[in-house]
Amino acid sequence: MKRRQIKEIALREIRTRGRSRGYRAITFIMFALVIAAPIVMSLIPSSSGDLRDVTIGIAGDAPNGLGDALEALSTDFYDLEIVDLGDDTTSEVNARLNDDNIDVAVEAPANIAWSESEDSELTALITAALQRAEALNRATELELDLDDLAAVFEPIEVEQRFVDGSSNTEDVRSAVAFFGLFLAFLLPQIFGQLTMLSVVEEKSTRVVEVLLSQIRPTTLLAGKILGLCALAVVQLTLIVLGLLGSLIATDLVEVPASVWVFVPMLAISVLGGLAIYTTLFALLGSLISRQEDAAQVMMPVFGPLMVGYFVGQSAIFGSADSLLVRVLTWFPLTSPMLLPVRVARDAIGSIEVAISLGLLALGTYLLFRLAGRLYEFTLLRTGSRVGWGELIRLSQGNV
User: Fold this and answer.
1) pLDDT in tens, the chain (399 residues)
2) Is 288 left (phi over 0), alpha (psi -120 to 50) or beta?
């Protein structure tokens, strides 16, 4: 009987809130954003793909064919301009370098001249070109077949493998961690406030009096939380599917297989955060009878949310194993935001994950028991809001 009542309350919340303009608008906006963001990014020209302008001066006594070798090796990296220095003296070459007419000069037999400091990338390019030009010159002197020599020096394609089966995915891991942190921070606020709004509406319209005449407060609370969490799962699924579809369509980033290990943890953390915060917002909603009073009771809830979000950002871009991050990973109101971040950064062990999830489940259960019992005293209260002092006295005397 109790399960049936919970199911009916949950379906009622799904039908009522799922059809509301607010829920549909938020879902559409977030779905559109995650689809549009990769598409827009794929259309923005990447500055890393622009060829670098480089001017190289070649003295007349440099190896023959050096210019051709430089052109061949720099095609994919530089927009190269070759300047023939002819028989310029050292002082004339120095003047060209100091006047920024050329970036670097190559002199015989294999000297490289710079204005102030060395450019290691250009050094590597010029060195390779010198070796190639000298090899071709020696092959000509020895009357070797140049085609055979080219086949000998044909570059091979080098591949890499890693013992853990993954490549350097730090940027992707950070992106996944930030995405999980943002969802764990945003969704509890959205659906927590929807929960509070639902409770306040039922109190102001006296619907709650009819409901409590038929079902227990804990049953009403469980059905309400279950229904709104189901709507959150639908919204979350649409967001993730939209993002994945857009990434696949644009081929913007290659997601390594190792990243998908984080997805279950993200889902568990987000759902845990939804459960504990919707319960908390439902309790806060029972303390007031008007929507105008919502801001007065919501402010304390935003404290742990903001702390978890900003500490989570520091864990993404800084240390994910500091004492503060570790402590807040065990605190149920902040662990939903910090747990996926530390997993993504590979800064937490399986035992600590189990402890954090266990404390989150325990905290949610205890808060639900507290909220369910306080419902009996607060849901039917109208007029002025229930003060924090009175709420504490009620919890001490009845829990």
Assistant:
1) 677 888 888 888 888 878 878 788 888 888 888 787 777 766 655 544 567 788 888 887 777 777 777 877 777 677 788 888 777 778 877 888 887 778 888 887 778 888 777 887 788 888 888 887 777 777 777 766 666 666 666 655 655 555 544 444 566 667 777 888 888 888 888 888 888 887 777 777 777 767 767 778 778 888 888 888 888 888 888 887 887 777 777 666 655 555 566 778 888 888 899 999 988 888 887 777 677 767 777 888 888 999 999 999 888 888 888 889 999 999 999 999 999 888 877 788 889 989 999 999 999 999 888 877 777 666 666 656 666 666 666 665 544
2) beta
Peptide bond between residue 109 and the one before it cis (omega within 30 degrees of 0) = yes
DSSP code per residue over 237-280: HHHHHHHHHHHHHHT-----GGGGGHHHHHHHHHHHHHHHHHHH
70: Cβ contacts below 8 Å, ≥ 6 apart: 56, 80, 82, 125, 126, 129
Beta bridge partners of 57: 83, 105
What is the distance between the alpha carbons of residues 372 and 217, in angstroms, rounded to a whole number?
Answer: 6
What is the separation, in whole angstroms, between the first and last Cα of the chain? Answer: 25
- Model-level pTM greater than 0.70? no
DSSP class of residue 19 equals T
Max distance between CA atoms of the chain, in angstroms, equals 105
Q: Which amino acid is at 96?
A: R
CB 353 within 8 A of CB 339: yes
Q: Is 54 helix (H, G, I), strand (E, B) or coil?
A: strand
Say how far apart CA 176 and CA 345 lie, in whole Å. 10
- Asked if 341 and 180 count as a contact pair (C-beta separation under 8 A), the reply is yes
* 158: CB partners within 8 A, 6+ apart: none
Q: 26 forms bridges with which residues in the sheet?
A: none
Among 126, 198, 213, smallest CA distance to 113 is for 126
